[in-house]
Amino acid sequence: MNNLNIVKEIFKELPNNIEAEQSVLGSILVSNELFDDINTIISNINFYDPMHQKIFVAIESLIYKGMLANPITLKNYFENEKDELNVPEYLVKVTKFSTSSRQAIEYSRIIYDMFVRRELIKISENTIDTAKLNELNVSSQNIIENSERLLFDLAE
Fold first, then answer.
1. Domain containing 43: what range?
2. Each residue of 114-133: pLDDT tens digit?
């Protein structure tokens, strides 16, 4: 594989850190008290892995109901998941990635940073695609304004 192909492979996948996601989820499952601190940094949409998004929503749902969120209490949420992944088994696995509260909070920041990078890529690609169109009803100023608005919303 030549260097150009290696570079192309690196840039194919959007920025993410699955290990950080697993560690944050595992840490919350082991110690629900971490959820409030982590929830001020990230929400379910910030996770790259769709299953991690679902797990975070389920954790959030249980915690907001004043219930314990752990692999046993979450099992019912995922019994009907038709996926190659055995989610109840996976929940137990991610608890092995649990870490200190300080590290979990730092990993949450990494998850958020990866999310922002993915959003920047989407905005940039949208800007490029729109700029390539030769539609007379879309001026270059409109393209700039739309991109600025999207970037401003992301920054907020």
1. 14-115
2. 999 999 999 999 999 999 98
Tokens of residue 119, six digits = 């959003």
Which tokens is 65 given?
């109901």
Would you list the DSSP string of 27-48?
A: HHHH-TTHHHHHHTT--GGG-S
> CA–CA separation, 42 vs 45, rounded Å?
8
Residues 6+ apart with CB under 8 A from 132: none
Closest CA to 110 of 36, 35, 48: 48
Tell me, yes or no, whether 98 lies in a domain.
yes
DSSP structural state of residue 43:
-
Instruction: Give the number of domains in the chain.
Output: 1
- Name the band, by pLDDT with cuts 50, 70 and 90, for residue 50: very high
Spatial distance between the Cα atoms of 61 and 55, rounded to a whole number of angstroms: 10
**Alpha-carbon 31 to chain mean position:** 20
Distance CA 133, CA 82 (A): 40
> 129 in a domain, yes or no?
no
d(CA 119, CA 46) in angstroms, rounded, equals 10
DSSP, residue by residue, 45-95? GG-SSHHHHHHHHHHHHHHHTT---SHHHHGGGGTT--SSS-HHHHHHHHH
